[in-house]
Amino acid sequence: MNTFFQLFVSGLATGSIYALAAIGFTLLWQASQTINFAQGEFIMLPAFFVLAGTQFLGLSFPVAMAIAVVLSLLLLGLGFKRIIIDPLLPHGVLPIVIATIALGILMKEGVKQFYTAEALPFPALFSDRTLNVLGAAISVQDIAVLLIALGAVALLQLFLNGTKIGRCMQATAQNPNVAEILGVPVRRMILYTFLINAALAFLASILISPIYLAKFSNGETLGLIAFIAAIVGGFNQIRGALAGGLLIGVIDNLSAAYISASYRSAVPLILLIIIILVRPQGLLGKAEGRTV
Amino acid sequence: MSKHSLLTLVAGLSILILLPFTQSNYGVFVLCSWLVYSISAMGLNLTLGYAGQVSLAQASFMGIGAYMTALMTMAGVPWPAAMIAAMVSCFVIGFLLGYPALRVQHHFLAFITLAFNALVVLVLRNEEWLTGGTYGIVGVPRPEVFGLPTQTPLAFYFFVLALFVLMAAGLYAIIRSPWGRAFKALRENPIRANSLGVDIRQTTLLAFAIGSSYGGLAGSLLAQLTQFIDPHSFGLTISLKVLLMVIVGGAGFFFGPILGALLIVLAPEFLRFTEGYYLMIYATLVIVLMVFCPTGLLGLVERARTAMKLRQNPNATTWEAGR
């Protein structure tokens, strides 16, 4: 029972990081019908910005973090939208899928060639002490990760529901044409969405890198899991992506311990297939009407 | 078919027949893998270019075909039976996989096939008693055609070429048939096609299943070509590679995937001097191509041709010029 509780909490912690990635994914889809196949690499990269700052430029950790945030927003938010998505958007989903796949390869290979192919330790933001909760050893890091990630999601929800910009963004996601008629600056709202996705990717990156080490190939699994989490939870819902992320995190941990270590990664995939077959709109999603 | 295109076809075939004689053994190997990947990409083109459904599982069908052929021929089953069995099972699996996925249409087939491919690789890796796990299977026998062995690269090339021509002809017939026209109608405007009596689900399902069986055959040939197979050769990256072949060449054009496969099989050979930067250059080229010409290279040719016709006859509308 203790092990179960332990696995459950650490599953929630990694799950909350998956949720950040999945939410970014969902936001991009809603705002601009962009399926970002490079999402995993978006999460891999910011950690390397920080490492490059501290190792090559000799910056202190907080300064390197600050620069990494700015770089992430510029490259993964603004640059990604301007250079890749904007020209491709009129041509439908498929060219974007291909281009983001290629972008993912480019980012992965870039880190491998220009930085390192090794897995680098990333400074932990919190102590790795463990607390004794009801006989189970729960690490402080897990708790902190969970709180920060959930806090970020709560802030995002507040922003989307409570501010004018946030509501304009929602209107854009629901129906860009009507939003435009009502005077919402649709293009800018879409840009904000890309910036938020970049910020979420940065956050996920610095939260997950201390746990899994920073490595160029991290994005492969992360991207796939973010993807699965978004669909399982509900592709058109933020809370769906959150639930999906947490669920996949927990299931992943538990199935590694209780089912089979070698088929561990099969469990989320099977879950994905079942969800698509039984409830294609996701656990918390609303069914989308088919447009004629 | 006009006289002009018939001539082009004959010329193309003669080049394909004569080309290997000018090549080293390695050159023939590269040509063979081009033809094999072309078959796979042709199948995906049917799903993607003609029926408009994104599948990310073409490599897993190649894997199923390759392992079935390898295991069956090594157990003593004659190769034609093994290859036909591989194609039929891929057709059936494609049907079973697509049946529920196509119920919900658009991007869901992409997601399901993505998960399916990852699952197939996991099974191939973990079920060591059958598949040899990560070590794969070594020593897949080459077929003996009418008593002639195909051990030499040249002989095997002609075996692959024969099947390639057969499959291409098959695809051409499918596209020209009422079915094939239904695929196209569906891609252009599903609702209109539906109102004209095309069963959307059945038609896309059929396209997907046929496309998958093409993948199965390509896998069979790949196993015999390399005589060694492992799970790594059928992962998601390979599916993406095949998808890229279709897109780069031009989805929905008959010769698109063949051209795309040529470029993507040859690209590593030409970019070898760049060493580690190869994949980065490759990825950049793909992004640039997508940004400037999302319809692929043949789409670019088509666009140029339309522009030329418009210049000759300025009064024609774009639509007429495109005919």
Automatic annotation (TrEMBL), chain A:
Main location: membrane
Entry's Gene Ontology BP terms: amino acid transport
An example Gene Ontology molecular-function term: transmembrane transporter activity
Chain ranges passing through the membrane: 7-31, 43-76, 88-107, 133-160, 190-212, 224-249, 261-278
Keyword Transmembrane: yes
Family matches, as Pfam families: BPD_transp_2
CDD domains named in the record: TM_PBP1_LivH_like
Subcellular location: Cell membrane
GO cellular component terms, A-Z: plasma membrane
Keywords: Amino-acid transport, Cell membrane, Membrane, Transmembrane, Transmembrane helix, Transport
InterPro entries per record: ABC_transp_permease, BCAA_transport_permease
Membrane protein topology class: Multi-pass membrane protein
Family listed: Belongs to the binding-protein-dependent transport system permease family. LivHM subfamily.
Protein name, entry field: ABC transporter permease
From TrEMBL, chain B:
GO molecular function, one term: branched-chain amino acid transmembrane transporter activity
Transmembrane segments: 34-52, 59-77, 83-101, 108-125, 154-175, 242-267, 279-301
Record key words, sorted: Cell membrane, Membrane, Transmembrane, Transmembrane helix
Matching Pfam families: BPD_transp_2 (PF02653)
Cellular localisation: Cell membrane
Example of a GO cellular component annotation carried by this entry: plasma membrane
CDD domains in the cross-refs: TM_PBP1_LivM_like
Topology versus the membrane: Multi-pass membrane protein
Name of this protein: ABC transporter permease
